[in-house]
Amino acid sequence: MPVLPVTPLDPAAPSLRRAYDPRQPLLRPYVREADSFRDGRSSPREVLEAGIDRITRDEPAIRAFVTHDFAAARRAADAATARWKEGRPLSPVDGMPIVVKDMIATAGLPTQMNNPIYAGWDARTDAACVFAMREAGAVILGKTVTTEFACGNSGPTRNPYDSTRTPGGSSSGSAAAVGAGMATLGFGTQTHGSTIRPAGYCGAYALKPTHGALHVGGITPLGATLDHLGLIGASLEDVWASGMAISRIVGGTPPHPGLAGPATAPAPAQPRTLVRLDTLGWSETPDSSRAAFEAAIAALGQAGVRIVDKDNDAEVAALEAALTEIGEFANDLLAWEARWPLAAYRAHGPEMVGGRIHDLLERAARLDPAAYARAVGDRQRLRDRVAAFAGRADGFVMLCSSGPAIQDHAFTGSRNYALPWTLVGAPAFALPLLVAEDLPLGLQIAGFAEQDAEACAIAGWVRDTLLPPHRDH
């Protein structure tokens, strides 16, 4: 049976390789510049132009964008510049340059989802998150590459630190654009591992919030109880302020009232106890990445955090055992919930969708309501295990991925580190603090459901502890 092939990479595209230094990343933070916007030392237009310069320089090698509109972005940045000078910014993100994953409806720009069925399609209405960020003054630079329907064939995007490597998926272009300093914030999604993993690969910060805390209206659906809006950004302050702007304007996905907390990132707070998790990903993790993670864990311990793990705590050992068994029921959840729209896409012709979509639909055909109910129950038991740590631990620490970005195009990497907190439905942050093989290696700080602000505060403390003098990265 013919299927839509993965588009090959352009062999004539320029190559790119640069060593990653977490103290000198390519990231372009925004929220921290508020004082310079007010007194005229800098402006949103200047920030935008610096990003456009970076796009001009690196986009031929990275291929993060599907489309962009620099003229509209410049008009919006000029309006934001005027508001800051007049002392009346709409929000802390007024003028922030952002990019939108091409699964998310954006008025005036096509939403094509890396599939020919939607070639040139204009939704004509903004998704809730895009609408909210426009209302908050953010500047829409363009649409970024996604894997096919956020679950299938890869697009052309490459890693901003090594163009022979994947940026991760499915939020490939958003992670690469932010990691390369082209934009401050990128909208992503996460149904299994599609925000935390690419952010870790590309040297960016990210927030995958409590499920439902950020509105998913206008995002092409995949799995209703799995889909999250993800935020990939240049700093913790940028992702938090963006999440709060969205929550303030459109709330969460009903009936969730929305992300709760201050308008700007909460002050860093030292945790008393963190649960170290190796997950199933540890068996895939090379020695250099293991060493980087162990060094980070040791540094946190030396700073006064009690680290509990499977070797010194029976409940952690039980949780780790449970995490080795999540793959099957996670795939059952996705296959069952994604029957629509995936079957509707396939109805256009089997050759119109890629192999991964055919595989998911074949899996769904083998399931029945009882099998789905079992998967839902398995997930709830995992959530109960995690919730039982409340009161005896402040959060969880693990990697974002099993090593740095892999040298592959069709495969975007293992999801074994990112998948657990998708299923738990609780907040997780990616911190670009570690290095392995001269490439970014993300550290993941995860929290308890509805405690996104508390997890952000812990993530801020971890960042400042592992990179002491550079609190703005």
Automatic annotation (TrEMBL):
Amidase domain mapped to chain residues: 46-454
Source domain of life is Bacteria
Entry-linked InterPro entries: Amidase, Amidase_dom, AS_sf
Family annotation (Gene3D superfamilies): Amidase signature (AS) domain
Biased-composition ranges, Polar residues, are 154-167
Q: Which organism is it from?
A: Neoroseomonas terrae
**Segments of this protein annotated with the region Disordered:** 154-175
- What's the name of the protein? Amidase
